[in-house]
Amino acid sequence: MARLALALFGLALLLVLLAWFQVIPGGWRLRNLIEDPARRERRLLLDHRAERLAAFRRESTPIAPGTVLFIGSSTIERFPLSDCFPGKGLLNRGIGGESAELMLARLDESLPVERERLAAAVVYAGTIDFRKERVDAAEASRRLARLVEALRERVRADLPVLLLGPLPSNEDDDRYRGAGLLELEGAYRRLATERGLDFLPLARAPFRAADGGLEPRLAVDRWHLDAAGYRLLAELIRTEGGDVGRLLGP
Questions:
Q1: Backbone angles phi, psi at 7, to 5 degrees
Q2: Which one of 71, 114, 128, 195 is separated from 221 by 20 to 30 angstroms, measured CA to CA?
Q3: pTM > 0.90
Q4: Residue 16 is assigned to a structural domain of this protein
Q5: Count of structural domains, the chain
Q6: What is the pLDDT of residue 59?
Q7: Domain of residue 227, residue span
Q8: How far apart are alpha carbons 123 and 147 in whole angstroms?
């Protein structure tokens, strides 16, 4: 009887290990039972990041001259670029949940082999650093600056870059609304002026509601735009996005 119990215990342990390491189904449910929520969120981010990077590597089709790179976090990943900028050469390199430092770390994997064919870049970064990692606006801006510098080093020094200002959100934490959001936007605006970048502020109507959060009529959740919101963002990029906007215009 003892031997049978020991054998059953060994079998159960083996099944748990196989599920945990995703050899057999059930690992996701198992982790949910025992993982700390913050650790689980981090693991899901890294799993998704790995999937996106693998997808980037599989894209072997040469890009067309004049292609515009979009790089950023989930706001970029979700951007329906081909719908918003029909007929344009576009490269979406957004990965949800990424800080500016994670974007910098994977920059080489995000650029096409024919990087000299890139005509410009649109960058949305640093909001995760400010909102989740809780760095101050100055540090978020410094991280964004390092990303832009590295991008220009790898493509060309005079690459036109459009910085998108931070979108409002409907977080429970007021730090990313009101004065905090405007402080971050101001730091980005100064960075753009210092580095000769185009800048598009987004902490305003129609995206910013009267309470300082993201306008619910243009949102799918607390952080992200819906299809109508993206259409409005695309129109602002075309009309107020400087050199990059002109490349994406009709």
A1: -65, -40
A2: 71
A3: no
A4: no
A5: 1
A6: 79
A7: 35-247
A8: 9
pLDDT in tens, 26-38: 555 655 555 566 6
Q: Per-residue pLDDT tens for 166-212?
A: 999 887 677 777 788 899 999 999 999 999 999 999 999 999 998 88
The two beta strands, 90-94 and 118-124, are unpaired
Place of tokens 């198992």: 30
Residue 15 and residue 24: Cα distance in Å, rounded? 8
CA-to-CA distance for 79 and 67, rounded, in angstroms? 16
Give the residue from 103, 94, 88 showing the smallest Cα distance to 70: 94
pLDDT tens digits, one per residue of 51-74 = 888 888 887 678 889 999 999 999
Specify if 157 maps to a domain. yes
| Cβ partners under 8 Å of residue 149, min gap 6 | none
CA 59 to chain centre: 19
Looking at residue 168, its amino acid is P
Residue 134 one-letter amino acid: R
The verdict on residue 8 lying in a domain is no
- Identify whether 13 is part of a domain: no
Cα separation of the two ends of the chain: 79
For residue 141, give both structure tokens: 């801006």
